[in-house]
Amino acid sequence: MYRILAYHRISDDDTSPLCVSPRTFRRQVERMLRWGFALVSLRELESLQARGVRGRIAAITFDDGYADNFTEAYPVLAGAEASATFFVPSGWVGRKGHMNESQLRELDAAGFEIGSHSRTHRELPFLQDDEIHEEVFGSKRELEDIVGRPVESFAYPRGMYDFRCQAIVEAAGYLRAVVTPRSSGHREGPYALERVGIYRHTGSTAFALKLLGVYSNLKRRGWAGR
């Protein structure tokens, strides 16, 4: 059994629904370890699957390249000997509140994966082909210049994609891409790997159900718990 979890900010200073407190994040990591989950990056997940490794595996991902991913999430994961993938818009590197080049290189050197979240976080399906190309190819090139290794994973900004976007992501040389589906009927493949979002309002019961893979079905049946 494997799951791909999607986080954004790890902070006490933001009331956004996308922000999980450091205390909650630490507890979630501890909980997954107690339940026997291996916490890995997407790159490691693919390697484990290729080798036929079984068991409980959770790939941890972060979107948007926030600075608190480095200051709050990184120490917790490193202390747990866990890994993760950090999806970074290359045009946001070094901006206030976001990770800088030095921090990305440190994460890479520590064994974490740096993935692309486009250049400027634009909604790709609404762009022309040449604009999508620049967002997808340009981000890969810029991040590879920073970390000095191939950038293999991509996350569609706001989870929005279509077949055109998938084709351009594949053509750019990415090996995989992730989405956080907004509705039922999602068709998964290597360029649309499904994630489950972890948010401020995700309570302990919902977190467990998301790990078990039954949360979406229960919500569609009217479950309103947290």
Structural summary, described in words:
The protein is of the alpha/beta class. The protein has a single domain, classed as Alpha-Beta Barrel (TIM Barrel). 38% of the residues lie in helices and 17% in strands. The chain has 8 helices and 11 strands. It has helices at residues 22-34, 42-50, 67-79, 101-109, 129-147, 163-171, 204-212, 215-220, and strands spanning 2-7, 9-10, 19-20, 38-40, 57-63, 85-88, 113-116, 153-155, 176-179, 193-194, 196-197. Strands 1, 4, 5, 6, 7 and 11 form a 6-stranded parallel β-sheet that branches. A 3-stranded parallel β-sheet has the order 8-9-10, with helices on one face. Helix 1 runs parallel beside helix 3 and helix 5 packs parallel to helix 6 (163-171). It starts with a strand and ends in a 6-residue tail after the last helix. The model has no long low-confidence stretch (mean pLDDT 93).
CATH architectural designation: Alpha-Beta Barrel
Please trace the helix and strand order, writing H or E for each element: EEEHEHEHEHEHEHEEEHH
CATH topology: TIM Barrel
Major beta sheet, specifics?
6 strands, parallel
Structural category: alpha/beta
What fraction of residues sit in β-strands?
Answer: 15-25%
Spans with pLDDT under 50 lasting ≥5 residues? none
Radius of gyration: 17 Å
**Domain module count:** 1
- What fraction, in percent, of the residue positions are helical? 25-40%
Rounded mean pLDDT score: 93
CATH class descriptor: Alpha Beta
**Given the structure, what is the number of helices?**
8
**Shape call:** globular
Record field, number of beta strands = 11
Q: How far apart are the first and last residues' alpha carbons, in Å?
A: 23 Å
CATH level-4 homologous superfamily:
Glycoside hydrolase/deacetylase
